[in-house]
Design brief:
This protein is α/β, with parallel strands linked by helices. The protein has helices spanning 13-23, 34-44, 57-66, 82-91, 103-114, 125-139, 154-163, 182-190, 207-210, 226-238, 264-269, 275-281, 298-312, 322-330, 336-350, 396-410, 415-422, 426-438, and strands at residues 3-7, 27-31, 48-52, 73-78, 95-99, 144-147, 172-176, 215-219, 240-241, 250-251, 255-260, 285-287, 319-320, 355-356. It is globular, with a radius of gyration of 26 Å. The chain binds adenosine-5'-diphosphate and magnesium ion (MG). Adenosine-5'-diphosphate is lined by residues 118, 120-122, 148, 150-156, 304, 337-338, 341.
């Protein structure tokens, strides 16, 4: 459960944010100002701080660094406080939350704060050794290449390396190089200036810049085309990048991790991967064994996932029966940890009674073993998450206003129709709309109303 510290007055919009957070299960603590907030942090700690942008956030963050208190801070304020927002971000705030707060945004922030990346589960001797190596290498700043079949946990390991490095306070940014066509990938990576190409309506910072001070994971780098490979090499060697359409290079301080499920040496031999980039990345590499080669991890991972998904479903954690264990150990997991995770997730939802038996565990038919060069294994999609009600924690009048405006625009402004749908009198509807207008809320016009922009020119 996330512990949230709110710094500021709970009377106004921050109070609304607090109600949303509590409705999402957060534990709430509050302080009237940054000095009091620091005292609460010393006393209680927190997973997330929401701080009114009017306070001296720079001072608080410096004090936290000095006292080695690690906690993300999100500045909040009215969107019109643009300058204050910029100051807060410069001072090191993780993000800026415009008030009044959007419930989904708060939920996402809480989730991100409490779901600190799972430390990789590792019990098998092969993984214990690999994790030790990874933790040692994390302290250096060199690029690393992580290899392994799809679903073995390359991204999990990359996050662990970031979290164990001296860059842990900076961002961890991951980009799947296989997911985007070349030109899009290029602007995702390097960013672009306004007007650099048609559709570039505003300047945008790329992933390299977003990862400033932190770590950038180039996932599936084996799929990247050679022209971009050359640009990546330059970024690593020169520590600078060029935005598309940019006037000059931008210095970057980013650690590059790369991951692939391909055999890059073979790709080099086949002329599909640049040899110089390969050598640059492969100074040290970490190979994650497929799950079938580290059977000592199967049950600890199953335990980990059953606990996690039980918690996510608000159910108590249950033990596996011995025949469930036997089944899990006998399978050869072509989809690796990802496949195991999906199987356990399903089992948690399917199992009846107070244990998880073999009957709840559905496994794919034994697929032929796949070698490292085989592309993505197809695993069944995860079961749908329970829809979270977006209304809990919101104020009645806010919900009512949105419902009314939304209904009205669905009815193309027709007051009579909207009132019918809403089950209120047209008079009540008119009064509400009048009130909203007086508070500056845009109200859909009645049909036939001539809007200024529709008046004939001249
Ligand atoms: N050692 C591990 N401990 C806990 N979860 C893991 C571990 N390895 C993989 N996972 C989980 O398995 C899934 C696949 O991992 P991921 O890192 O995305 O694999 P890859 O990048 O190699 O395809 C993710 O949901 C991840 O959280
Ligand atoms: Mg991956």
């Amino acid at each position: 459960m996330a512990r949230l510290l709110i710094i500021g007055s709970l009377e106004a919009e921050l109070g609304q944010a607090a109600r949303i957070a509590m409705a999402r299960g957060a534990r709430l603590d509050s302080a009237e100002g940054v000095t009091a907030g620091l005292a609460r942090l010393r006393a209680e700690g927190a997973d997330l701080i929401l701080c009114d942008v009017l306070f001296d956030i720079g001072w608080l963050l410096q004090a936290m660094v000095a006292e080695r208190i690690h906690c993300p801070l999100v500045a909040c304020g009215r969107t019109s406080d643009a300058e204050a927002a910029v100051r807060a971000i410069r001072a090191g705030a993780r993000d800026f939350l415009p008030l009044p707060a959007e419930p989904d945004l708060i939920a996402a922030m809480l989730e991100a704060a409490s779901a600190e990346p799972d430390a990789p589960v590792h019990r098998d001797a092969a993984m214990v050794q690999l994790m030790e190596r990874a933790t040692t290498l994390a302290r250096a700043d060199a690029s690393l290449l992580i290899t392994g079949e799809s679903g073995t946990g390359k991204e999990v390991l990359a996050r662990h390396i970031h979290a164990s490095s001296r860059r842990f306070r900076g961002a961890f940014v991951a980009l799947n190089c296989a997911a985007l066509p070349e030109t899009l990938l290029e602007s995702e990576l390097f960013g672009h200036e306004k007007g650099a190409f048609s559709g570039a309506v505003a300047m945008r910072r790329g992933k390299f810049e977003q990862a400033e001070g932190g770590t950038l994971l180039l996932d599936e780098i084996g799929e990247m085309d050679p022209r971009l490979q050359a640009k990546i090499l330059r970024a690593i060697q020169e520590r600078e990048i060029d935005r598309l359409g940019g006037a000059g290079p931008v210095r970057i301080d980013v650690r590059i991790l790369a991951a692939t499920n391909r055999d890059l040496a073979r790709e080099v031999a086949a002329g599909r991967f640049r040899e110089d980039l390969y050598f640059r990345l492969n100074v040290v590499s970490l190979r994650i064994p497929p799950l079938r080669e580290r059977s000592g991890d199967i049950l600890p991972l199953a335990e980990h996932f059953s606990e996690r998904y039980a918690r996510a479903n608000g159910a108590p954690r249950r033990d596996f029966t011995p025949d469930a264990h036997a089944l899990l150990l006998a399978h050869d997991w072509p989809g690796n940890v990802r496949e195991l995770e999906n199987a356990i997730h399903r089992a948690v939802l399917l199992a009846e009674g107070d244990v998880i038996g073999a009957d709840a565990i559905e496994l794919s038919a034994r697929a032929p073993r796949l070698d490292a060069a085989t592309p993505q294994v197809v695993v069944p999609p995860r079961p749908m998450q329970k829809p979270v009600t977006a209304l809990v924690g919101r104020r009645m009048e806010d919900v009512e206003r949105e419902l009314i405006i939304e209904t009205l625009s669905h009815c193309l402004g027709n007051r009579t129709r909207a009132a019918e749908l809403l089950g209120i009198s047209i008079r009540t509807l008119r009064n509400k709309l009048q009130e909203y207008r007086s508070h500056g809320v845009a109200v859909p016009p009645a049909p036939g109303t001539v809007m200024p922009e529709h008046l004939p020119a001249g």
